[in-house]
């Protein structure tokens, strides 16, 4: 576990590519232009039971009711056509990304300038963040919390961001003591043990894994995420299905769910949105759209408890 800010500075973008090679599979060619029309949204698949679709500024998002009830305000964001990108690196439109971030922050009741954003490296480093990190990466990629793939906080009202495209974003919430985490869980991070490292950080704060609830974002799945045998060898068999030749289709969200169960979470406490980024036009996909693809995100904030709210009045 890294103290915030001690990570490597080689990933200051805050939104590392989601599936570099994926075991030899090349990303789809293209300049990142979104070709799907908004009419395609009418036939988009439904999310899993217990997952609520929400909207702000005309953009779709999803949240898990069970985590909202426990005090983890959160949303997994989506897109409409080319709108919805939250990333500010890679030549993307920063002004548009700030507008999208601001819209979702207003939805959660937080200030966009307070966001804490990580610089992702597809590893297993975790940063515990608090007031001193408020606003890191909020206005641009130059001051993200670099070199980490998970953020943990016990600070109510401190909003965390996790930009992804094909990788899963996992929100973890512990009620006693109150703690929140957001995790970047692609196949590299899952193989490296990023979920175990994050749960270890929560345990050091006093959280029992059996009492942790999790929400797993839309992620690349069996509709279009084919990987080579060297990647498939790292994944649980239940997250794979046969592909062409010696290749396999990987369900990243299923891998994340299985990993969480293996780490002690209760099945009823692990909630998967159940949408495949490679197939759903409401979501960005690095694999489908190429390196210029935008990023959607998990935004999450630990809601103040009633006692905390009364004390601050």
Give an overview in words.
- The protein is of the alpha+beta class.
- The chain has a single domain (2-12, 48-219, 267-304), classed as CNF1/YfiH-like putative cysteine hydrolases (4-Layer Sandwich).
- It is built from 8 helices and 17 strands.
- It has a 7-stranded mixed sheet. A 5-stranded antiparallel sheet has the order 2-3-4-17-9.
- The protein starts with a strand and ends with a helix.
Present the secondary structure layout:
Elements: E1 2-3, E2 51-56, E3 59-64, H1 65-70, E4 72-77, H2 94-108, E5 118-119, E6 126-128, E7 145-146, E8 150-153, E9 160-164, E10 168-174, E11 179-185, H3 187-192, H4 194-204, E12 212-216, E13 226-227, H5 229-232, E14 240-242, E15 248-250, H6 252-262, E16 270-272, H7 286-289, E17 296-302, H8 306-311
Number of helices: 8
Quote the distance from N terminus to C terminus. Answer: 35 Å
Instruction: Give the class from helix and strand content and strand pairing.
Output: alpha+beta
- Tell me roughly what share of residues is in helical segments: 10-25%
**CATH fold call:** CNF1/YfiH-like putative cysteine hydrolases
Please summarize the sheet with the most strands. Answer: 7 strands, mixed
Number of strands: 17
Any low-confidence stretches, pLDDT <50, length ≥5? Answer: 5-13, 17-43, 309-313
Summarize the structure.
The chain has helices at 65-70, 94-108, 187-192, 194-204, 229-232, 252-262, 286-289, 306-311, and strands at residues 2-3, 51-56, 59-64, 72-77, 118-119, 126-128, 145-146, 150-153, 160-164, 168-174, 179-185, 212-216, 226-227, 240-242, 248-250, 270-272, 296-302. The chain has 313 residues and is α+β, with helices and mostly antiparallel strands.
């Amino acid at each position: 576990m890294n103290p915030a800010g001690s990570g490597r500075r080689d990933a200051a973008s805050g939104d590392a590519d989601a599936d570099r090679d994926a075991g030899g599979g090349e990303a789809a060619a293209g300049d990142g232009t979104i070709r799907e029309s908004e009419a395609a949204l009418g036939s988009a698949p439904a999310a899993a039971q217990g997952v609520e679709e929400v909207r702000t500024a005309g953009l779709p998002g999803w949240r898990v009711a069970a985590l909202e009830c426990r005090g983890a305000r959160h949303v997994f964001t989506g897109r409409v056509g080319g709108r919805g990108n939250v990333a500010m690196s890679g030549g993307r439109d920063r002004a548009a990304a700030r507008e999208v971030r601001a819209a979702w922050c207003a939805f959660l009741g937080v200030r966009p300038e307070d966001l804490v954003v990580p610089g992702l490296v597809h590893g297993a480093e975790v940063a515990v963040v608090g007031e001193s990190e408020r606003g890191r990466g909020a206005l641009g990629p130059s001051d993200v919390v670099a070199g980490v793939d998970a953020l943990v906080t016990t600070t109510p009202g401190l909003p965390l961001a996790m930009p992804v495209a094909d990788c899963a974003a996992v929100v973890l919430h512990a009620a006693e003591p109150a703690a929140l985490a957001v995790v970047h869980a692609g196949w590299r991070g899952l193989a490296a043990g990023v979920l175990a490292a994050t749960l270890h950080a929560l345990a050091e704060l006093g959280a029992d894994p059996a009492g942790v609830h999790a929400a797993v974002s839309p992620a690349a799945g069996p509709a279009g995420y084919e990987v080579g045998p060297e990647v498939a060898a790292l994944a649980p068999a239940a997250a794979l299905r046969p592909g062409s030749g010696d290749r396999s289709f990987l369900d990243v969200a299923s891998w994340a769910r299985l990993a969480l169960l293996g780490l002690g979470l209760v099945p009823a406490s692990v909630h998967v949105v159940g949408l495949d980024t490679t197939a759903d036009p409401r979501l960005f996909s690095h694999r489908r759209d190429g390196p210029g693809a935008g990023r959607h995100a998990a935004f999450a904030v630990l809601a103040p408890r009633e006692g905390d709210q009364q004390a601050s009045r």
